[in-house]
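Entry:
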Amino acid sequence: MTDKSVLIVGASGVVGRAAIEHFAALPDWRVTGLSRRIPDTQGDATLLKLDLMDKTACEHVLSQLGHVTHVVYAALYEEPGLVSGWREDHQMQTNLEMLENFFTPLRKAAKDLQHFTLLQGTKAYGAHLHAIAVPARERWARDPHPNFYWLQEDFIRTQQKAQDWQWTIMRPQIIFGHALGVPMNMLAAIGAYGAIRKAEGKPLSFPGGAPVVFEAVDARLLARAFEWAGTNPDCGNHIFNITNGDVFVWRNVWPTIADALGMDVGDDEPILLQEEMPKRADLWDQQVAKYGLQPNSLQGLVGDSFYYADFSFAYGLKESAPPALVSTIKARQFGFHDCIDTEDMLHNWFKRLQDMKIIPPVG
């Protein structure tokens, strides 16, 4: 039996789901996933249902996971409405409490723990609050703003003192992958928006504002970075920015998205998706019935991701905002060279969602 056993926390999210499938496809890993909802993942993994806000349940479940050697912590709590909650103390304290409830009993049980991977993001550099110098580098001092990232990071650093295990922190940009009903899933938001526009007999018009330069990361690439960091001792106690390796502007990749959805590109049409799309939920239901899609309601598929899409599309922005780009030199210097063309990623993911009958086919 393998001596490598990974526990993926937040297994029903975009990141957790990709991590489950990646590690489950490897021949020498024992894989366990924890989440409030059991995800529809593929591969050989043990999936456990657990609410990280239930301290008693955490103590019971995690006391039985003494085999764990590696942890990928991708659990996340977001306030309803998403973006407005990024500055709320309740959001920050809830995320800290979830980590504490999880790790306190796990460290008692997992005597052979080797590595803990924690997820952050570009908000570590204050990109959601102000313009940042580019490219953002991991060696910078902390941006002086309240953030649950700092609360979780300080907790893990404290727990790791005088211990044999190591931690790695990953800071990805916009993450693309599949999960149902989560707060930050651009593929679900775009796929549902496209299906509704198609039902209305309309082209795929860009619904946002002024152009902004972004970076993306495929959730599957991020999962490969988890494996790399977790098995490379040199990555211990380091922070890494992770991206696909290129940059993009939504309008520039819009023709690629339209082609992947089997649609024409229309003229720009600013739409506040978080307000307008729920009004058209019946059109989504019609598409589900017409194409025999998985029986997900619009909310069940998209969750709060229309809020995230409005933010990413820069709805209402009249002039281009400064880009929030990060350097990935450090990861490359440490040995992680994986990359993917973002347009290829978009085509690949929409094709996969169509094959899974999550969104309508091209025809």
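The first strand starts at residue 5 and ends at 9.
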